[in-house]
Amino acid sequence: xxxxxxxxxxxxxxxxxxxxxxxxxxxxxxxxxxxxxxxxxxxxxxxxxxxxxxxxxxxxxxxxxxxxxxxxxxxxxxxxxxxxxxxxxxxxxxxxxxxxxxxxxxxxxxxxxxxxxxxxxxxxxxxxxxxxxxxxxxxxxxxxxxxxxxxxxxxxxxxxxxxxxxxxxxxxxxxxxxxxxxxxxxxxxxxxxxxxxxxxxxxxxxxxxxxxxxxxxxxxxxxxxxxxxxxxxxxxxxxxxxxxxxxxxxxxxxxxxxxxxxxxxxxxxxxxxxxxxxxxxxxxxxxxxxxxxxxxxxxxxxxxxxxxxxxxxxxxxxxxxxxxxxxxxxxxxxxxxxxxxxxxxxxxxxxxxxxxxxxxxxxxxxxxxxxxxxxxxxxxxxxxxxxxxxxxxxxxxxxxxxxxxxxxxxxxxxxxxxxxxxxxxxxxxxxxxxxxxxxxxxxxxxxxxxxxxxxxxxxxxxxxxxxxxxxxxxxxxxxxxxxxxxxxxxxxxxxxxxxxxxxxxxxxxxxxxxxxxxxxxxxxxxxxxxxxxxxxxxxxxxxxxxxxxxxxxxxxxxxxxxxxxxxxxxxxxxxxxxxxxxxxxxxxxxxxxxxxxxxxxxxxxxxxxxxxxxxxxxxxxxxxxxxxxxxxxxxxxxxxxxxxxxxxxxxxxxxxxxxxxxxxxxxxxxxxxxxxxxxxxxxxxxxxxxxxxxxxxxxxxxxxxxxxxxxxxxxxx
Length: 717
Prior knowledge:
717 residues; alpha/beta; five-stranded mixed beta sheet; two-stranded antiparallel sheet; 33 helices; 9 strands; 7% strand; DUF4371; HATC_C_dom; AtLOH3-like; protein dimerization activity; TTF-type domain-containing protein
């Protein structure tokens, strides 16, 4: 076709632009991923470099994101004449609908001219605001002259942007005017599809089925769920599936993905709106999914407008490798996509992986080089787990206890037959104990249990192992007695006999109950630290309280008191002190003065003394309650610096438990049967699945508008 027809180019277009335009027509069309487009205009390629049929889709994606306006960026200065000048962020308020700033090149651009500028030649500054970039920071009037009059190239490009985002200006609407009845049917059909998709997202369920043909017995969750309301509501049945236009049923996989993406974007925007321009901390961790791809999860920790601390899952990003530089680049791209800036980070929370918390080349160090105020806190729960692992390995009798438990698992639970035997014995034991009134009954009590293996990287697993061993002790002994008598060979019978002697030994029983009590104290601390609203001061106080008073809990004969109990406590105390030395830094010690239980004794100003003696604040127990009370009474406006200090203290991350919850959710959303789930699709599903409380507040109308504006639709509203 290109041999016979040649598109007419604007007469004032440069010859180089003409060549690039023609070459773009002949280039092979490739799949584009709108999620990977750079937000910074300095990193973008020319709009003419894209395939012609894809350009409107790309333009619409950029217009939905809006101009790149990093208002909180530390703009660099350059010498112009005899003065140092820099970009003024207040210009975003005056020229906010088109002005962009490129952090990459330290220049300003025009978004609408980038999208449509090639149609108007050299008018209004030529390529200054499109390719080269504006740098005359001392000549603000050039921005106004770029806008020009009503018929300037800039305003024509701006009107083209508005027309592109206005459905009524699309060629489909002009050619095919739809009646109000058709529009209403389309809205109802779209609403039903959105409702079904919202349900699947909240439950973390798959959408598609193995066979979605009309003759299939199971067409997949989405189609089957869509059919359910149709079969029970005649008005819906008239609008969906077979009764809808064959080419407009809104059930195609692309439609489903667009709706999910629209919902995820609105959920993320709601989180950013709640964050506002406040300071925040990041919590980052990485794990491998079911398809052996490295996924990095990012959560934000900030103080909301009510003065409460919240942690929100922000996104999942696939990284090709787990080096610190790759992780940092992935964070930069995600922040740039959503208009966040690293300069607003005031806290970092990771585990002990070297690529995360390395002093010289870790992710922590890379962010600190760019933002020295991003204070790093090692995950408290992870440090606590390290102390428990050290006790379990460094004390001979405790290590022997957990080795014995592992052997029990291999012997008692080594086959399905023995596992069923153990379960049956435990059920009979519980039934008899309930009949005699030896154990309490109630909702949630006496659930079916099994022996668990202690895992060094699984929080609380050592304590859970000992609890289950105590609960199932009688049943385990009964099973070992059976194996001792009826084992298939002499080795099995001998092993069972040896285990029985060890289980009946006093040293074993004493060590078992000792470690249950010691680990029980640490387990309470671990559970408290994993709360999303936990603050750094309370975490420090919890650690101190657990370190005190442990040595007076148990007394027995000298051997067990000194030789066993005291040594276990000493090892754990030493490990706690070794791993929690980071919390004794000057910053955290200074933060402790904000605790209202100290009556703000470190402040000596008269207004703060009056503030501390106020009746409304006398019963507060922590900085979390103090922050909420300040907002509730409106005194965060009267004492802005105190409120700022409270925010800085509360946003410091305590634990990475949010990341563990995210990876647990990832195993639900991307399971063995959904192992080919695309990265962007998985991230959208996870955002809506994890942040249900935000997702539930988003109305269908907002989702419909986002869905309609994503691309040209056959249906009109």
